[in-house]
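Fold it.
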Amino acid sequence: MLKIRLARHGRKKLPFYRIVLTEHTKPAKAWYKLVLGWFNPLSHTMRADVSAIKEWISKWAQPTERVAKLLFADTKDDFFKKYFIERESTKGKEIEAKKKAEAEAKAQELREKQEAAKAVVEEKKSEEVQEEEKSEEVQEEKKSEEVQEEEKSEEIQEEEKSEEVKDWEGVEEKVGETLSKSELSE
């Protein structure tokens, strides 16, 4: 069975790869039949004879998953997409799940803060209303005390007047008695 795969060349820490056609049992580096292109992973450049690759695939050659991904990324041809499985990285899912959880936690925290703020505002309003009611009650009590004091002062004044009148009546009676005695004595 023929495979289209990558054969590593270059030196230590400076690799480049040839896209080669080889027997699947033979080593890719030594026993390849045909060079179909090359790929440099350091500069992310690629040159491939796409028509030759498609021709060999039609003759039952199988591209490796990595080669199919590279050819799809380079050409955006859906022909190569069927030779690899698009896998979603589990790390990406975990990161997205963490972001969602953090966003939900922040939203929940924000809602709680807003509710707490509303509760504080309502509490302040209720306190203000209670204070106003207390102040109104205090004012009413003061007014009622003032009215009571005025009534008491009026009663005291009336009592004093009545006592003065009684005193004058008593004085008039005494004066009248003394006058009548003096008239009698004359």
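The CA atoms of residues 22 and 32 lie 4 Å apart.
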